[in-house]
Each structure stands twice: as structure tokens, then as C-alpha cells.
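In response to reviewer comment 3 from the previous cycle, which asked for concrete evidence that the modeling workflow produces usable outputs, we include below a single protein chain processed end to end. The sequence was submitted unchanged, and the resulting C-alpha cells are shown without manual editing.
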Amino acid sequence: MATKITRDVIESFLDCRYKGYLKLAGEVGSPSDYEQLLRESRVRIRLAATAKLQAQHEEGQVLQRLPLTLGVLKRGVPLLLDATVENEEFRLCFDALHRATGFSRLGDFYYVPVLFHEAERPVRKFNVRLEFLGQILGSIQGR
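The workflow returned the following C-alpha cells.
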């Protein structure tokens, strides 16, 4: 059985509990045409959103593809892209983390998770996934 919970496992579980179980167990299936189309759409959306967010910030204000540690968060940059947190139980990737004002273990700021998605409005599964990522992030930053 696979030992780490990933975003793919969480997303699969929210679609179907048994599918989530199979992903966690390391089972691999063939994606349907629709699932493949959604993946391609999400890649395009991710690239477009990343480019747009980077354009809104000056050079040096955005960190990318870093392991998410307390030290990285304490740098206090306005935006983190593709940050990954990993421990014995899970390996989760955040699309982005946006700095907000308020008290936390980091100082007078904290980070809010951002997810890129193709839907115009968030659906229940999206909110649950965002809440889960927020809980993980909150445990790191103390908020």
C-alpha cells in the first residue's frame, strides 16, 4: 500500500471513496477520455494562472517549486508557486500561497492557499480540498 496521501488521492476520494482507496493503494487505471480532457484543461489553466500571477509581482517577490518549510514561509515573499509540503503521511502540492496580513508563527503575516480550477464557481469538492490544504498549511504556520 502506498504510504503518502497526495492531492490526486484526495481528489479521487472526493469523486469516489473507492477510487481514493485504490489510488492510495498504488493501483493504476486507464483514464477515460473525459478525465484526460480535464487534465489537459487544468494544465492550461495552471500555466495561464501562473503567468498572470507572476506578471503582477516584481522579480524576487515570487518563489517557485520549493519545499514548504517554516524557513521558506518566514521569508515573507508575497507569492509562493508550486510549493510542496511533505512528511511521513502526505506529499501535497499547493498551486500558490498568497501572503496576507495577520498574526501567525511567521510574524505579522500568514499565507492563504490558492488553487487553480477550471470551474467558474467553486463546487463542494473544491471547497473541501481547499479546506484540507488550509488545515495542513495552518499546522505549519500556526494559524
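The longest helix spans residues 33-55. We consider this sufficient to address the reviewer's concern, and the full set will be provided in the supplementary archive.
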